[in-house]
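Tutorial, part two.
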Amino acid sequence: MPRPTIFDPVRKKRIVLTPEEEVRQFVIRFLQENCGVPLGYIGSELPVKLYQRDLRCDLAVRNKRGEAVMLIECKRPSVPLGEKVLEQVLRYDMLRRERFIVITNGLEFRCWERCEIAEENEEKTVRWREWERYPTWEELNLS
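Running the prediction step on this input gives:
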C-alpha cells in the first residue's frame, strides 16, 4: 500500500508524509503566512558537513541579500524540545552561523537570536537571546 505524500513547495516535489515532514510543511506555511517570508527564501533539507559526517538541516531562511539568517530544526510532535534537539541545531550553526535558530515539534517552538559580545581580549563570546515568537521578514532583513 502506498504511503501518503504531500507536495513540498520548497523542493517542488511530492514527499512521503511522515510526522516530521508534516511539521516541516506547517512551518513553511507559517513562515509564509504569518511572518511574511517569501517562499523563494526558504531552503529545505540543506546539506551540512560536520567532522566528515553528512547531515541535513531541516529548514533555513535567507534574507533579501541572500545571507542565511535562520536555521530551523523540526521534530515529530512526540519529541520533546530538550537539550538534545538544541544541541543538534547548534552543531549545524557551528558551520553556518545564522542570526536565529529555532527548534519545533509543531506543538511548541523555541527561537533564539545570536548576540555576539566582545570580550577584553578581542575574542567574541556568543550569547543567545530567546524570543517569544518567530521573527518577521522585516526583522530578518535588518543588519
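The longest helix spans residues 19-35. In part three we will examine how such features are distributed along the chain.
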